[in-house]
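Posted in: Protein Modeling Q&A

I'm a second-year student putting together a small comparison for a lab meeting, and my supervisor asked me to include a predicted structure for DUF296 domain-containing protein. I've never done this before, so apologies if this is the wrong subforum. The sequence is pasted below exactly as I got it from our records. If anyone can share the structure token output, I'd also love a short note on what stands out.
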Amino acid sequence: MRSIKQPGAPVTERIQWVEARGRAFSFTLQAGLPLLEAARRGFAAEGFAGGVLNFTSGALGPFGYVMPALSKTGENAAFYSDTYRPAGVTRTRLGSMTLGSRDGAPFFHCHGLWTEADGKASGGHVLPDETVVAEPFEVQAFGIDGAMFTAEPDGETNFKLFGPVVSASTGARTTSRAFALRLRPNQDFAGCLEAFCRARGIARAKIHGGVGSTVGARFSHGGVTEPFATELAITAGTIGPGTSGVLEAVLDVALIDYTGGLAEGRLVRGDNPVLMTMELVLEVLA
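Accepted answer (user: helix_wrangler)
Welcome! Here is the predicted structure, written out as tokens:
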């Protein structure tokens, strides 16, 4: 399997996870607010301090983002581009977000694809401190209670990355057993999730959120992303019995690579290793 050497030593535990409770809901992001504050308010209104969300068509402006890029210093296996700040209103096509905390304050990690006001199709990593909701738009959210994604230094990748930690219950109304996960580098995305569910007797699960990166990508429609550094959003995902009865992760994703190439589709099981990280929430259905 493809792999990318990281600057630090791999830790033994390849999946960082916390069991929690959760609930799916939708809300509308309020125009004129920073995207971070609009998201925070939406979760807070339902009693949650954090969680994950997915969105399709939305409107952002002012808007700042970065794309994946090669590392200039060698301190990381890959890095970020300079900041892009497209003029006017950018229209999102799809995206996913993890809402958690960094340095004691709300923070998010968000990847998506969009069309800028001049018609340019692009995507990447949305900057929380430079992005404002231009028009109200609806998002599909999943709040988690008993776990929080918190940004902490990660020695393996030499980045400060979101990972789930145990947090005090906020008393929010929940409906489902859930697991907040962070997958570490150089393990197959689907296989990792399948093994996690098998080990816990989970027969069916639904993925909510999903922000991370893979070492390029191999799609079931035959498409291939060769450039190794990507920014990826999960658009839909389930884990359940396949035709043979064995657990299979079905992962539909969209990404941009460091050359600006865009790709969407279903990932091939067994051939899509994680590059830096993959954050998501598994809702246990059975």
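A couple of things worth pointing out for your meeting: The longest helix spans residues 189-199. The mean pLDDT is 98.
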